């Protein structure tokens, strides 16, 4: 049967049913992340544009006071390539200024001047700290551009120069280098690993100390998070093993941005295969992450929830570790959170716990996750509702008959059936599958007729019937299958014994006291 | 915010609502009120009228009525103070403010929801630009930060120039901006003055809606004349506004120009006149009017023996027998009255009184009723400040308001009688102050204080009367003094207010110069002096340059004022 084939294909996506570990995990749609990021960048740009003219105006007197000469691009090339140190500094500073203006920094023009190797050379002028600093800043901002821009900096030989500057006696220079290295690492797995192969990690970690200023520490944390970021391939194991203990320390810091970026790093590290998840679990950090998941600060809660969500995509044992760390106590709150993205991520996390063995499903029931799940299904943001549908579907796939009864008692049917009106045919299919699962359970209990009645009373039959005209063929067949199997009335002899056993039809069944 | 379409944004809004009218106690406010009441009567608008003689009364009236009303119309009060701040209204409460007080509070100007200002747009308001006095960029920044909160950190970050100097820069910028803001606001709020008469604004509304009647036009004229008599506007502004009203007068009163098209004598007619600037002369004797008009009395220096002689010379020059000028003007020989205006003007020129005639309007109805606009102003103002108690606080207000209707001639005549008493009292007080040298130069200003026990002192515990007295006194003082520096000084005048409570009323007026812009800086100065000395003052009057103060605090208050203005 095609429907069943489809079903088994999807079954493989659930970690407890499938065979292939890689298929077990339902990965987050990367597009969402991309979109979010793009939106943020846009906002930052927008915001900065507003203050742009103001800043320019107010900078000019500052410029005058420092008696800085305006350089043309040609003059910059000339001075940078010249031998006059004073002019070199002024020209580098001029270039840095151009690159650090908010609107349309001339990154391409500066690269085309061919001065990057020269700027890298300046990084090594240990006797001229000002020149080192200006060059480092200029290169940082070039590396902050698109991939080609970053490439230009790397190919200019900046990586070893910056790494050796991490140990500069001048803190502002080493901080600027951390920043530049963060930009290079952020470009992708290739440069990230190039940095790691050049032994960026030990000197970087050496900068973390109890006396490091907060601003500096924020930069370090962000750069560390970029060193943990990106897959294909994952970051090298030995680097991760070195970084993790420091991240765990940073998660105890009082600054919320430091905690936030550490959590993001952790979420990158857990976004991988089960053995990668295991490395994080082995540090024993999970209780702290769960604690941070309950933080009132959105910037902390979001990455902590993401990390936990990643962990529960792992093995049953790994999921159990998250449950033992207390994740089920925090989730109800997050399912009811005002922000739709939090609702969605929380429901996604819950759906993967519900995909576990029935013992874990039982814990989910015991910890009171069903009421917030039903609420979310009923009134949540649509994306969150979709995740909630997955949670219910997974529940009905792995739950025992008794657990299914508990699920129906919690009032899940009404909002679930209402969602049959959704436009998204994938969601509709999952719901129809879920309904089939519930009927299979009802059959085992000989309570098929009661479930039929309940579905009918909740206007579910009407909606399922309507789906027989759905444009999607799979939806049509799934709906038809349910109707033929359970709602073809007297024609179906299978139903007769069930209703005939106590000799009368009980029409008084309400969903609250539904009892198999 | 300013209302640009009076009809759509004001009248059409309130016409279907229950409205509370809060009206200040000056003649212009009463006239504006009369016009609005007439309009409300036409359209059956439900309204309640509450007089408000000061900020306290305004607040009390608001608190008493805020539950029943959502729409408040304020006439000649409310514009120059942050209304939302002092009244703390609910968000669904709306204020329509028709007020000649300037400068208008900037919050009132830039509030787009609750404060609607009915103010003539071509008045020179000089309101500071929004961006110079309000700033919300920082909130914006935080908002957008909140939006993106919780999203993934960016992969690459550029280091901006501002990162280094951002904080100090912003702080410095902020400080500079705030200093500039203070300066701008100081310049803007420093001087108090008056804009277009509220009665004229209301008449404009009636005219735009084609609901203007001759009666309304008359009230607009009286409102403008009140501003002129109270010295609230410049000569220039007065002449300009007279011109505007004159066009309406000819539109409304073109009939009766020929025999065929004549109106009944009982009908009301308004006429433009180039009349004598002699107070109430048509209802007095010419002699009394000459003696009690500030302009003639000051110019002739009537407080001195020489002045009296000059008056007789002046009368002789015109060839008017004493017997004739001392009897009621109505009873004077018709032959003498025929060319009276021209005759007086000609002689006045010889005696240095070049501006004895002014552009004004008069009203006729019936056989014997002829009033000049200034007559009505004097009469109504006197009724408003009648010191003989005749009932509750609002009696004077109601009576003054009623006297503006043609049907209440008795009240008008009572007002005229009171006005004569008032003018006499002013003239006598001026004479005694000048003769006993009560006007003292304090350096930056002149100062005169009326003692308890001075005749008519009770009359001058009222703001309008005290202001009139101050203006007449200053005019006379300028004519009497030889000290050229003193001629250019403003005047502060104090009078006992409440003996039991030990308070005085104090008013400051700008210098008496021909080109005076009528701008008054005493409001702000009073505030500052009171602050710096912790004097117990009450700024209750809608004009900031009128205050009440504890008698014991007077000397330290004045000392502070002197050092502040020196």
3D architecture notes:
The complex is a heterodimer of chains A (516) and B (566). Chain A is mainly α. Chain A has 32 helices and no strands. In chain A, helix 10 packs across helix 11 and helix 18 crosses helix 19. The longest helix of chain A is centred in the first third of the chain and has 36 residues. The N terminus and C terminus of chain A are likely disordered. By secondary structure, chain B is an alpha/beta fold. Chain B has 3 domains: 119 residues, Alpha-Beta Complex (inorganic pyrophosphatase (n-terminal core)), CATH 3.90.1640; 214 residues, no CATH class; 128 residues, Diaminopimelate Epimerase, Chain A, domain 1 (Roll). Chain B has 23 helices and 16 strands. In chain B, helix 2 packs parallel to helix 9, helix 10 packs antiparallel against helix 11 and helix 18 packs antiparallel against helix 19. About 2% of the residues of chain B have low confidence. Chains A and B meet through helix 3, helix 8, helix 11, helix 14 and helix 16 of A and helix 7 and helix 8 of B.
Provide a short characterization of the protein structure.
The complex is a heterodimer of chains A (516) and B (566). Chain A is mainly α and 516 residues long.
Note the topology.
The complex is a heterodimer of chains A (516) and B (566).
Chain A: H1 2-11, H2 21-24, H3 30-65, H4 73-81, H5 85-99, H6 107-112, H7 116-123, H8 129-143, H9 147-155, H10 158-165, H11 171-185, H12 189-197, H13 201-206, H14 214-228, H15 237-250, H16 256-270, H17 274-281, H18 286-293, H19 298-311, H20 316-324, H21 327-335, H22 340-354, H23 358-366, H24 370-379, H25 382-398, H26 401-409, H27 413-418, H28 425-445, H29 448-457, H30 460-466, H31 473-486, H32 495-500
Chain B: H1 6-14, E1 19-23, H2 27-42, E2 47-51, H3 55-65, E3 71-75, H4 83-87, E4 94-98, E5 101-102, H5 106-110, E6 115-117, H6 130-133, H7 137-148, H8 162-190, E7 193-194, H9 198-208, H10 214-229, H11 235-252, E8 269-276, H12 286-292, H13 294-300, H14 305-318, H15 322-326, H16 334-338, H17 340-350, E9 357-365, E10 369-372, H18 373-384, H19 395-403, H20 409-435, E11 440-441, E12 446-449, H21 463-480, E13 491-498, E14 503-509, H22 522-533, E15 537-538, E16 546-550, H23 554-565
Parallel strand pairs in B: 1-2, 1-3, 3-4, 4-6, 12-13
Antiparallel strand pairs in B: 5-7, 8-9, 9-10, 11-12, 13-14, 14-16, 15-16
Helix pairs in contact in B: 2-9, 2-10, 9-10, 10-11, 10-18, 13-21, 14-17, 18-19, 18-20, 19-20, 20-21, 22-23
């Amino acid at each position: 049967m095609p429907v069943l084939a489809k079903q088994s294909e999807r079954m493989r996506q659930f970690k407890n049913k499938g065979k292939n570990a890689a298929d077990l995990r339902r990965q987050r749609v990367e597009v969402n992340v991309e979109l979010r990021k793009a939106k943020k960048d846009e906002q930052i740009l927008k915001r900065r544009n507003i203050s742009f003219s103001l800043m320019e105006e107010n900078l000019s007197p500052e410029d005058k006071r420092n008696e800085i000469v305006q350089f043309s691009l040609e003059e910059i090339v000339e001075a940078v390539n010249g031998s006059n140190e004073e002019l070199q500094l002024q020209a580098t500073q001029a270039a840095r200024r151009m690159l650090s203006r908010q609107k349309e920094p001339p990154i391409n023009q500066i690269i085309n001047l061919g001065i990057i190797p020269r700027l890298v050379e300046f990084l090594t002028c240990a006797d001229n700290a000002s020149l080192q600093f200006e060059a480092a800043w200029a290169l940082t901002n070039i590396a902050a551009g698109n991939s080609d821009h970053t490439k230009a900096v790397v190919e200019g030989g900046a990586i070893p120069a910056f790494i050796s500057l991490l140990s500069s006696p001048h803190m502002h220079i080493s901080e600027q280098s951390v920043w530049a290295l963060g930009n290079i690492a952020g470009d992708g797995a290739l440069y990230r690993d190039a940095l790691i192969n050049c032994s960026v990690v030990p000197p970087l970690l050496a900068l973390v100390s109890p006396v490091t200023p907060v601003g500096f520490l924020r930069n370090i944390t962000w750069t560390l998070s970029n060193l943990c970021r990106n897959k294909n391939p994952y970051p090298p194991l030995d680097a991760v093993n070195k970084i993790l203990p420091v991240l765990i320390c940073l998660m105890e810091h009082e600054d919320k941005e430091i905690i936030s970026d550490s959590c993001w790093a952790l979420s990158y590290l857990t976004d991988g295969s089960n053995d990668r998840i295991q490395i994080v679990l082995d540090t024993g950090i999970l209780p702290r992450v769960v604690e941070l998941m309950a933080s009132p600060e959105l910037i902390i809660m979001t990455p902590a929830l993401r990390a936990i969500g990643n962990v529960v995509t792992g093995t049953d044992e790994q999921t159990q570790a998250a449950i033992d760390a207390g994740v089920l106590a925090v989730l109800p709150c997050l399912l009811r959170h005002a922000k739709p993205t939090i609702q969605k991520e929380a429901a996604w996390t819950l759906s993967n716990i519900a995909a576990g063995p029935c013992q874990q499903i039982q814990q989910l029931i015991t910890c009171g996750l069903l009421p917030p799940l039903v609420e979310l299904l009923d009134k949540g943001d649509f994306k969150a509702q979709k995740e909630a549908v997955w949670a219910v579907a997974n529940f009905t796939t792995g739950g025992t008959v008794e657990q299914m009864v508990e699920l129906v008692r919690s009032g899940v049917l009404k909002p679930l059936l209402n969602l049959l009106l959704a436009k998204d045919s994938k969601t509709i299919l999952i719901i129809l599958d879920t309904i089939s699962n519930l009927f299979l359970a009802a059959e085992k209990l000989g309570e098929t007729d009661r479930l039929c009645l309940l579905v009918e009373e909740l206007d579910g039959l009407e909606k399922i019937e309507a789906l027989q005209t759905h444009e999607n063929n799979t939806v049509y067949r799934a709906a038809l299958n349910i109707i033929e199997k359970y709602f073809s009335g007297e024609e179906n002899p299978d139903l007769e014994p069930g209703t005939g056993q106590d000799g009368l039809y009980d029409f008084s069944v309400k969903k609250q006291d539904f009892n198999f | 915010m300013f209302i640009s379409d009076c009809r759509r944004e004001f009248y059409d809004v309130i016409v279907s609502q229950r409205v509370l009218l809060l009206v200040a106690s000056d003649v212009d406010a009463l006239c504006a009120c009369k016009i609005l009441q007439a309009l409300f009567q036409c359209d059956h608008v439900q309204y309640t009228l509450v007089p408000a003689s000061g900020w306290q009364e305004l607040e009390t009236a608001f608190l008493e009525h805020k539950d029943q009303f959502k729409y408040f119309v304020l006439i000649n009060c409310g514009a120059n103070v942050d209304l939302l701040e002092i009244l703390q209204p609910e968000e669904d409460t709306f204020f329509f403010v028709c007020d000649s007080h300037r400068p208008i509070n900037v919050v009132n100007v830039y509030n787009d929801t609750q404060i609607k200002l009915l103010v003539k747009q071509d008045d020179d308001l000089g309101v500071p630009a929004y961006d110079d006095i309000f700033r919300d960029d920082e909130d914006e920044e935080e908002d957008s930060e909140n939006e993106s909160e919780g999203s993934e950190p960016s992969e690459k970050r550029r280091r901006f120039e501002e990162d280094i100097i951002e904080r100090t820069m912003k702080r410095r910028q902020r400080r500079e901006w705030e200093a500039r803001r203070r300066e701008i606001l100081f310049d803007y709020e420093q001087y108090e003055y008056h804009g277009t008469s509220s009665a004229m604004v209301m008449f404009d509304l009636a005219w735009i809606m084609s609901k203007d009647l001759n009666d309304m036009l008359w009230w607009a004229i009286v409102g403008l004349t009140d501003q002129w008599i109270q010295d609230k506007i410049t000569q220039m502004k007065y002449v300009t506004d007279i011109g505007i009203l004159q066009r309406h007068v000819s539109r409304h009163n073109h009939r009766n120009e020929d025999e065929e098209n004549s109106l009944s004598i009982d009908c009301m007619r308004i006429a433009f006149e180039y009349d004598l600037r002699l107070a109430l002369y048509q209802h007095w004797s010419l002699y009394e009017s000459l003696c009690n008009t500030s302009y003639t009395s000051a110019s002739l220096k009537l407080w001195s023996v020489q002045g009296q002689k000059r008056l007789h010379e002046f009368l002789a020059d015109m060839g008017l027998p004493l017997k004739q000028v001392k009897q009621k003007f109505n009873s004077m020989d018709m032959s003498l009255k025929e060319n009276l205006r021209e005759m007086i003007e000609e002689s006045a020129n010889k005696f240095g009184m070049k501006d004895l005639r002014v552009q004004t309007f008069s009203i006729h109805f019936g056989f014997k009723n002829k009033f000049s606009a200034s007559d009505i102003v004097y009469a109504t103002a006197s009724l408003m400040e009648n010191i003989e108690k005749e009932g509750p606080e609002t009696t004077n207000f109601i009576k003054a308001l009623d006297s503006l209707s043609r049907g209440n001639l008795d009240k008008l005549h009572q007002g005229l009688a009171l006005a004569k008493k008032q003018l006499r009292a002013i003239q006598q007080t001026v004479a005694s102050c000048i003769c006993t040298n009560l006007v003292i130069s304090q350096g930056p200003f002149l100062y005169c204080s009326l003692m308890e026990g001075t005749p008519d002192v009770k009359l001058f515990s009222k703001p309008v009367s005290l202001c009139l007295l101050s203006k007449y006194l200053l005019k006379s003082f300028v004519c009497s003094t030889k000290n050229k520096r003193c001629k250019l000084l403003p005047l502060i005048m104090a009078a006992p207010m409440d003996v039991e409570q030990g308070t005085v009323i104090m008013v400051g007026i700008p210098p008496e110069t021909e080109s005076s812009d009528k701008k008054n800086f005493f409001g702000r100065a009073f505030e500052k002096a009171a602050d710096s000395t912790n004097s117990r003052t009450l700024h209750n009057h809608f004009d900031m340059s009128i205050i009440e103060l504890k008698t014991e605090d007077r000397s330290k208050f004045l000392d502070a004022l002197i050092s502040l203005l020196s």
